[in-house]
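Pipeline run #58 for the internal structure catalog. This entry was flagged by the ingest filter as a single-chain record with no existing model, so it goes straight to prediction. Upstream metadata was stripped on purpose; only the residue string is passed forward. Reviewer on rotation: M.T. Logging verbosity set to normal.
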Amino acid sequence: MAEKLKIGALGNSKMLRRFIQSPEISSLATIDVIATRSEDSALIARKNYPDRIICNSYEAAIEMKDLDAIYICLPAGLHFSWAKKAIEAGKSVLIEKPAVLESQDAIILDELAKAKQVLLMESWWYRFHPLVESLRKLITSGCLGNIRHISSSFSYVNPDVNDSRWQAELGGGALYDMFSYHVDFLNYVLGIRNQNIELIQAFARYQHGVDACISAELITDNGAVCHFVAGLDRPSLCKTFIIGETGSVEIPHLRILPEFGESRYILYKDGEPQVTSFEGADAYALMFNQFASACLYSEPSPVPFLDTINNTQLLERIQTARDEN
């Protein structure tokens, strides 16, 4: 394999701009090829990325022998089928979240990737920010004692009715788009997984045939109460609170985009609030480098696909609870 991982992107989403910059964000990987769904789409991609190879079909990129990996930034409803084709072609795969919409599809991809001996990873970029790593260590240390309550809001206003997030047939809706961050936060930072959730209540407001906003309460087997809100049609403070028996944490913003610059969280314990600050960091670049390193040097995935399976199982349960109301 080459010194740099050569990647082909399926789709020309806004997210792609995070990974194609000048200078390159990674010393280990480059996105050399962009595959679009039609010649019209290819014309737009050529205008946006004149120095890249542009294909007018997804198959063309998957079939390129000099590409090591495929980055899938298509609408969520298309992820499974194209990830499966890429893995079958012997390519490692990085998939935008949500990787899939059904846990059985996640299991199929995981088993196929193991059989083909390629790396499969969901693009949970926020995990790689130093703030999130610090939070995870804080929780693991037991500093807060037993966790009693967790609340978080993560929403924004998406005014583009033609966006795939408003299209039910493309896997749109707030649950799998924004709410999935809450589920992964539970899993990765707090160690609370699907099997730890005993009770779920969920309610949604609908627009354009999808859940535009969803609110859910989850109660764990240890009695912790988790309250989460996510939406595509509402502004949000995007704050997160973790309340334990011996301390609490306030996170002004858990998903820190590179342009946010400095970030912080506040620990309330033993008197005065303790502020932990972090310099600006590009979590996308950090994730991209680790994905490339794992592919190049046959390392384990930085985001185990078992987490994706677990997350999707919990999202399915929340979806069921939502549909019952």
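catalog note: The CA atoms of residues 98 and 180 lie 7 Å apart.
catalog note: The chain has eight helices and 14 strands.
status: ready for reviewer M.T.
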